[in-house]
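I am writing to request your help with a piece of structural work I have in hand. I am sending you one protein, given as its amino acid sequence and as whole-number tokens for its backbone shapes. Kindly check, if you would, that the fold set down in the tokens agrees with what the sequence suggests. You will find the record immediately after this paragraph:
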Amino acid sequence: MNNLLKQQYIRLIECNNEEISILANTSAFIMQNFDDISWAGFYLLKNDELILGPFQGKIACTNIPLTKGVCGKAASSRKTVLVEDVHQFEGHIACDSESNSEIVVPLIKNNQLYGVLDLDSTSFGRFSKEDQIIFEEIAEILVQHL
């Protein structure tokens, strides 16, 4: 992420101590600053499942078990999962039939899973390793402010 964009993001969230507002503005920030993303949002860990949090995009699945889908895999492994073609991902949960690629970044706060940042695109292969680095950086900044 370029330094100007990084500074804009930090300024957006640093003066806010309401988690829901920080998450909502992070979703909006991603949608406004990155091309070809159809859904950007969060699933938050609650009672051993992921619960839908703030997002931008089409209606979404509300509960995701830790054993299901790209979000569940990223959450349970605590590692980013980048999928070039979601239709080839075993166990993919199709909340939006137009979604073709996805990246999910786990949010780790104080060595505990907080949730995941989930990004979808209607394009195949939309997310690169460079994108992974950028979205992991956003996630790192984010958890410092939650």
Notes: The chain has a mean pLDDT of 95.
